[in-house]
Design a protein that fits this description.
By secondary structure, the chain is an alpha/beta fold. It folds into three domains: 7-116, Tetrapyrrole methylase, N-terminal domain (Cobalt-precorrin-4 Transmethylase, domain 1, 3-Layer(aba) Sandwich); 119-241, 2-Layer Sandwich (Methyltransferase, Cobalt-precorrin-4 Transmethylase, Domain 2); 256-460, 3-Layer(aba) Sandwich (Rossmann fold), CATH 3.40.50. Helices cover 40% and strands 18% of the residues. It is built from 18 helices and 19 strands. A hairpin with a 7-residue loop joins β9 and β10 (206-211). The chain is rod-shaped. The N and C termini lie far apart (82 Å). The relative contact order is 0.08. Residues 250-254 have low confidence and may be disordered. It holds the Pfam family TP_methylase. InterPro entries: 4pyrrol_Mease, 4pyrrol_Methylase_sf, 4pyrrole_Mease_sub1, 4pyrrole_Mease_sub2, Cbl_synth_CobH/CbiC, Cbl_synth_CobJ/CibH_dom, CobH/CbiC_sf, Precorrin_MeTrfase. Pathway: Cofactor biosynthesis; adenosylcobalamin biosynthesis. Residues 260-454 form the Cobalamin biosynthesis precorrin-8X methylmutase CobH/CbiC domain.
Length: 467
């Protein structure tokens, strides 16, 4: 009479800490006649084994032998448990056992018991990095060609998926992680959060938070999981957070402007890949291209003497902004100015301006600058229309040693426009933002100011707070 067939249960043990075993896995181990697995994992299940249970180790990288032994013993009537780290269905033994059953036409009963995968355990330690669509990748090329792995890396990067990396590195396989970083930087911002979690849920556990720019593959070994955020992910203190979208939904229903602006910035940034600019300059450029859709600005926008940082510091103290025309004045965000205590003034329609203009035979914008210099010599001066006004200010700076906080030089037109901007460059210690050539305009001048007012948001590349 033939032996009654036993069964095979493939059980996930989680990341290695018995406190993270799921009850079905514990029950399966307690009922087992034989447990088959890699010997390193037996230390974690000792307290759950019944007397007489045999533990069989087939050695590392002997998964096929493990599965074959499991079927041999189960067909003899044994209750066999094949243990896998993490979840047995994620880079574990489950698929091999089912494939072998198909190929051998075995009638042994099969069952899979889930476990907590390492990426889930790592995520719980980090906060909430996996709250949106995600991809899990293994960099091991033992069973998958590297050409296919790279194709999948590119797809994950392009798709803006949160990405968890298994088998990121070994002694012989080290360069692939460098290549992954390179591919992700082609699609993601340098500030994209990256976490390295080593020996998760074990005594040797180590957690490191960084970003794509500073991510060093040398920090990673075969016991590590790497998690890369998406374009919305951020780090707050020691927490790695990927928004699910609830707050964005509220903003979308009430304030669509910031969301549209953020999407535009992502599009622009993707087209500016490879342009080596300081973050503060890039921040101003992103604002200007968002306003104008003119990518030539990448060539003609110049930031002199750390102007973005220095002018932001000036405005943080409640500085004064002088504009050449009211259109530039009206384009500067009122909420930002209120938040920082900044006063924005334009003298174009001041009654004294007309009187001064007629008396000296100069333009009203020139006259407005003369009045402004008398009352606010150290203000930030913003020019988006009138080159004559900019020339007036530079002349006064030379003749009367006026030292404004800085200049935004973006007048537009054909007469004296280029020359007015060249004058600004001659003040080598002056913080200035210049749109070279004929291009410019009041809208761009105001946009540059708005970027400087919101400079603290540049480091997370999240525009639109004061829209």
């Amino acid at each position: 009479m033939p032996n009654k067939l036993g069964k095979i249960t493939v059980a996930g043990l989680g990341p290695g800490n018995p406190e993270m075993f799921l009850n079905p896995a514990i029950d399966a181990i307690r009922d087992a006649d034989v447990v088959i697995g890699y010997k390193y994992y037996f230390q974690f299940i000792e307290t759950f084994l019944k007397e007489g249970t045999e533990c069989m180790d087939t050695g590392m990288r002997q998964e096929v032998q493990r599965a074959a032994k499991a079927f041999e013993l189960a067909e003899q009537g044994n209750n066999v448990v094949v243990i896998s780290s993490g979840d047995a269905g994620i880079y574990g033994m489950a698929s091999l056992v089912y494939e072998m059953a198909e190929k051998t036409q075995s009638e042994v009963e099969l069952k899979v018991v889930p476990g907590i995968s390492a990426f889930q355990a790592a995520a719980a330690k980090l906060g909430a990095p996996l709250s949106h669509d995600l991809v899990i990748l293994s960099l091991s090329d033992l069973l998958t060609s590297y050409a296919l792995i790279e194709k999948r890396i590119k797809a994950a990067a392009m798709g803006d998926f949160v990405t968890a990396i298994y088998n990121p590195k070994s002694k012989k396989r080290y360069w692939q992680l460098y290549r992954l970083r390179e591919l992700f930087l082609e699609e993601r911002e340098e500030t994209t959060p990256v976490a390295i979690v080593r020996q998760v849920a074990r005594a040797e556990e180590q957690i490191s938070l960084t970003n794509l720019r500073d991510f060093d593959p040398e920090m990673v070994d075969m016991f590590s999981i790497v998690i890369i955020g998406n374009s919305q992910s951020y780090i707050s203190g020691d927490r790695f957070i990927t928004p699910r979208g609830y707050y964005s939904k509220e903003e979308k229903e009430g304030r669509p402007g910031p969301l549209i602006m953020q999407e535009s910035f992502r599009t622009i940034a993707s087209e500016l890949k490879g342009l080596d600019l300081p973050l503060e300059t890039k921040w101003i450029l992103l604002h200007c291209i968002h306003t104008s859709a003119d990518f030539e600005l990448a060539k003609i926008l110049k930031v002199q003497n750390d102007a973005a940082i220095k002018l932001n510091e000036y405005l943080q103290k409640g500085g004064v902004i002088i504009t050449d025309v009211t259109m530039a004045q009206s384009g500067i965000r009122k909420k930002a100015c209120e938040r920082m205590g900044v006063e924005v003034k334009c003298y174009l329609h001041d009654p004294r301006t007309m009187e001064l203009s007629e008396k000296h035979g100069i333009t009203r914008t020139q006259a407005g600058v003369r009045l402004a210099v008398e009352e606010h010599p150290d203000a930030l001066y913003v020019f988006g229309n009138a080159p004559t006004a900019l020339i007036e200010l530079t002349d006064l700076m030379r003749s009367k040693n006026i030292q404004p906080a800085g200049i935004i030089a973006a007048p537009v037109g054909f007469v004296n426009v280029k020359e007015s901007k060249h004058r600004v460059k001659s003040f080598r210690e002056l913080p200035a933002v210049i749109i070279e050539g004929r291009k410019g305009g009041s809208t761009l001048a105001a946009t540059i100011v708005n970027a400087i007012l919101a400079l603290e948001d540049a480091y997370d590349l999240k525009p639109g707070r004061d829209v």
